[in-house]
TrEMBL record:
<feature type="transmembrane region" description="Helical">
    <location>
        <begin position="238"/>
        <end position="259"/>
    </location>
</feature>
<feature type="transmembrane region" description="Helical">
    <location>
        <begin position="24"/>
        <end position="47"/>
    </location>
</feature>
<protein>
    <submittedName>
        <fullName>Cannabinoid receptor 2</fullName>
    </submittedName>
</protein>
<dbReference type="GO" id="GO:0005886">
    <property type="term" value="C:plasma membrane"/>
</dbReference>
<comment type="similarity">
    <text>Belongs to the G-protein coupled receptor 1 family.</text>
</comment>
<feature type="transmembrane region" description="Helical">
    <location>
        <begin position="181"/>
        <end position="206"/>
    </location>
</feature>
<keyword id="KW-0675">Receptor</keyword>
<dbReference type="InterPro" id="IPR002230">
    <property type="entry name" value="Cnbnoid_rcpt"/>
</dbReference>
<feature type="domain" description="G-protein coupled receptors family 1 profile">
    <location>
        <begin position="39"/>
        <end position="291"/>
    </location>
</feature>
<dbReference type="GO" id="GO:0043005">
    <property type="term" value="C:neuron projection"/>
</dbReference>
<keyword id="KW-1133">Transmembrane helix</keyword>
<keyword id="KW-0966">Cell projection</keyword>
<dbReference type="InterPro" id="IPR017452">
    <property type="entry name" value="GPCR_Rhodpsn_7TM"/>
</dbReference>
<feature type="transmembrane region" description="Helical">
    <location>
        <begin position="93"/>
        <end position="118"/>
    </location>
</feature>
<keyword id="KW-0472">Membrane</keyword>
<dbReference type="Pfam" id="PF00001">
    <property type="entry name" value="7tm_1"/>
</dbReference>
<dbReference type="InterPro" id="IPR000276">
    <property type="entry name" value="GPCR_Rhodpsn"/>
</dbReference>
Amino acid sequence: MSTTNESCENLTCYMVLDVLERKAIGPICLLAGSVTLMENVLVLGVIATTVRLRQKPSYLFIGSLALADVFASCFFTTSFLDFHLLERRDGPTAYLFKLGGVTMAFTSSVGSLLLTALDRYLCIHQASSYKVLLTRRRALLSLLVLWCITVFISSWPLLGWRCPTELSPPCSRLFPYISQDYLACWVTFILILLALILVAYALILWKAHRHESSMTSLQGAADKGQARMRMDIRLARTFGLILLILVGSWLPVLSFMLVDMSITLTRTHQRAFAFCSTLCLLNSAVNPLLYALRCRELRTALRQSLKRLCDLGKCKTCNGNLNHTIHSTEENVSAVSRDDALTARTTQLDSIAEIVNNQSR
């Protein structure tokens, strides 16, 4: 059904989900948001508490990705459920502020993925001078630039670049108060970032393939290659999975945004876009598994952190038992009768000996 003549003054034309669709999409958002938050907080905690990881640019980029996905899990989940399930009708400023948080989180996530891809590109193509080219200071500077750009771009609608007619009629059928020019600018920016990520991984695979081909020609035998999979094939499988998830999560959403700039979307298109937008949240849930927990050094740091927590818990248990023993001893001593001093001393010594014997069993 066309929505061309439908009024959007009270945001009704954007609240397109029926009761069954709300019951379906609500648990999806809550589960994906909770899992995304816990995973990325865990990654951030391990990197923040491990000095060795904090010194390496690669893990700084992974930490930036985890921070962006933490924001995405909070901003997207609350905003989406608040709008589509609770049907909260915010004014232009409140709505654009929430949308700006979601835009900042997802833009920073894709930007951090680009920095991670560029880090791997430098590690492969400039292996001898990698530590000189990418120092910790330069990594922090690049992260600062990335977050400043994403915050600046995300705040444009809030600063005044919005639909000139607001809701009479609306400029976009996907986002209230959003100008199509701004939507085109943001979509173009994200597509450029995704294209650069694809190029970076393609160059990494090309370099790995050349390296394996030269090694094979020098060895002159294929026995090693038969014993284990070639490095370029393993990288191709890994990067293929990464790019498949990345493109599969973002392409449907970006396609709807591009179509929205050329035609008037129907309610069916709007409902499909609402479900497709949750794919971006699912991508944020998968990112820690693809980029962080696949790193052996980070997994080792995670196991060490868990071991320290377990040891700390055991120490607290031991201290609790010791305090209980001392407290029980004091109670037994204070319960001794004052009438007979000799009997009191004997009772006290017997009580202490009994407690020590019980604790030693």
